[in-house]
Specification:
Layout (H helix, E strand, L loop, with lengths): L4 H14 L7 E5 L4 H16 L5 E8 L8 H9 L4 E5 L2 H8 L5 H20 L3 E3 L4 H15 L8 E3 L6 E3 L7 H11 L9 H5 L4 H14 L3 H9 L4 E2 L7
Parallel strand pairs: 1-2, 1-4, 2-3, 4-6, 5-7
Antiparallel strand pairs: 5-6
Helix pairs in contact: 2-7, 6-9, 6-10
């Protein structure tokens, strides 16, 4: 598969800027079936074959056990590439009904899924977890944080977990969502839409900011480029001392 330079170059630049991939790393990629993560899977496989840095790649899928999530096509797709694949099931929505307090379903599910990913990474010997958020996600989080919480912060492109035993990377931090959508369409990736229907159906402020930013971009074509420049100093939160 030939990957477009519009995807490979910004991912390569992000990996280089933040030193995301190091010699001997075992990287676990979280794949739910969306276009972003399936696209990232192909991009990381490209670097696996072309970079002089030796690393390993595995994939994990978290099954939230909700109606509408059917991962069969995803499993067949990943098995075709002979990539280590781990499937973890947990009744996230039932757990949310019992213990969620004040959070959105989206944030609650994200936190539970992250914990399950950490468990799989530790159990299977991976020291890096790769997530699929892209530049649009980072910019939307920045605007939501400023407008709702009065804080200038966003998702990190590179950080260490609280237990200090895993690095988390977001190699798509410089990539626009529409680039990933175009790639998924032209390559006919086996997209599983709305893999956690309960989360997607819940009201969210993110959709409002997404539309607002896209509207503003028509007047300011360099909007996302400028916001990336403003965010870049706070995207890396790694610390010395993690042996990876």
């Amino acid at each position: 598969m030939v990957l477009p330079k519009l995807l490979v170059k910004p991912v390569g630049r992000a990996i280089s800027d933040f030193k995301m991939i190091k010699e001997g790393n075992k990287i676990l990629l979280a794949v739910s079936g969306g276009k972003d993560l399936l696209g990232l899977f192909h991009i990381l496989r490209h670097f696996l074959a072309s970079t002089p840095i030796r690393f390993e790649l595995g994939v994990v899928t978290i099954n939230p056990q909700v109606d509408g999530f059917e991962p069969q096509a995803l499993e067949s797709f990943l098995n075709f590439f002979d990539t280590p694949y781990f499937f973890e099931a947990f009744p996230i929505m039932k757990q949310a009904e019992k213990s969620m307090k004040g959070n959105s379903y989206y944030s609650f599910c994200a936190r539970i899924k992250r914990g399950l990913m950490y468990q799989v990474a530790r159990r299977e010997g991976y020291n890096v977890l790769a997530l699929g958020q892209h530049l649009d996600d980072l910019v939307e989080s920045l605007m939501m944080s400023m407008c709702h919480n009065g804080k200038i912060q966003t998702m990190k492109a590179h950080y260490i977990n609280d237990a200090k035993d895993l690095r988390i990377i977001r190699p798509l931090a410089y990539v626009r969502e529409r680039q990933l959508a175009d790639f998924a369409k032209t390559t006919h990736l086996p997209i599983i839409k709305d893999s956690c229907l309960a989360c997607y159906q819940m009201p969210t402020g993110r959709a409002h900011f997404k539309q607002w930013l896209l509207t503003e971009e028509r007047c300011t074509p360099n909007l996302y480029k400028n916001l990336l420049s403003a965010m870049k100093p706070m995207l890396d939160e790694t610390k010395e001392g993690l042996n990876d």
